[in-house]
Design brief:
Order of helices and strands: EHHEHEHEHEEEHHH
Strand order of the largest sheet: 4-3-2-1-5-6-7
Shape: globular
Helix content: 25-40%
Number of strands: 7
CATH architecture: Alpha-Beta Barrel
CATH topology: Aconitase, domain 4
Strand content: 15-25%
Number of helices: 8
Distance between the termini: 38 Å
CATH superfamily: Aconitase, domain 4
Largest sheet: 7 strands, mixed
Length: 192
C-alpha cells in the first residue's frame, strides 16, 4: 500500500443509494485472488452494454471522470455481501477515497484494510458534493478533514489505528511485522 496523507482530486458523483458490492464488482469477477485488472470490471453491469462496449452515458465512461480519485456516493455504499474485491476494484480503477453519509461497515473495514479511505460526512456536506460533481476537494488524513473549494473544512471520523496504517502505507500484518523485533525480544525474555 502507498502511504496516504492528502488526496487532492476532482470528484465523481454516483448519487444512487444502496450501491451494493455486487454492483461495485459483480460476482462473476470474483475468481481472482489478485487485485490487478479489477478496475476494468468496476461497475461492469452499469458501465458496459450486453456486448461489452462502454455505455457513453455512464459517468465512469465520460471524459469528466478520467483521473478522478474521489468517488462521492449515495447513502449506504458497500452494502450487501462481504468481498474484498469491491475496494480492490475501486483502487485498481484509481480511486483513493469514497465519500458518503453512510458506508456499510464490512465494506468500510475492508476498504481501510486495503488502502481505500472511506470518508463519512454530514448531510449538508454530502448534499453540496452531490450538487457539485467534479468539484476539486482535498482529503487531509493528518487533520482528518475534507477541504471543499468554497473554503469549508469538514471533519470526518477515523479510528487512530486505521489512520496510522493508511498514513504509513501498511496493513495490519505489515504493522505487526514492523513490531517483530519487539515481539522476539519479549519472547526471548519470557522463554522457559
Amino acid at each position: 500500500m502507498e502511504p496516504i496523507t492528502r488526496i487532492t482530486s476532482r470528484t465523481v458523483v454516483m448519487a444512487s443509494s444502496n450501491i451494493d458490492t455486487d454492483q461495485i464488482i459483480p460476482a462473476r469477477f470474483l475468481t481472482t485472488t489478485t487485485r490487478e485488472g479489477l478496475g476494468a470490471a468496476l461497475f461492469a453491469d452499469w458501465r458496459y452494454d450486453a456486448s461489452g462496449h462502454p455505455k457513453p452515458d455512464f459517468i465512469l465512461n465520460t471524459p469528466e471522470a478520467q483521473g478522478c480519485r474521489v468517488l462521492v456516493a449515495g447513502p449506504n455504499i458497500g452494502c450487501g455481501s462481504s468481498r474484498e474485491h469491491a475496494p480492490w476494484s475501486l483502487l485498481d480503477y484509481g480511486f483513493q477515497a469514497v465519500i458518503s453519509t453512510e458506508i456499510a461497515d464490512i465494506f468500510r473495514n475492508n476498504s481501510l484494510k486495503n488502502g481505500l479511505l472511506p470518508v463519512i460526512v454530514d448531510e449538508a456536506t454530502h448534499a453540496w458534493l452531490l450538487a457539485h460533481p467534479g468539484a476539486e476537494v482535498a482529503v487531509d488524513l493528518e487533520r482528518r478533514v475534507l477541504d471543499l473549494p468554497d473554503g469549508r473544512s469538514v471533519s470526518f471520523p477515523l479510528e487512530p489505528f486505521a489512520r496510522y496504517c493508511l498514513m504509513n502505507g501498511v496493513d495490519e500484518l505489515g504493522f505487526l511485522l514492523s513490531k517483530l523485533p519487539d515481539i522476539e525480544r519479549y519472547e526471548r525474555s519470557h522463554a522457559k
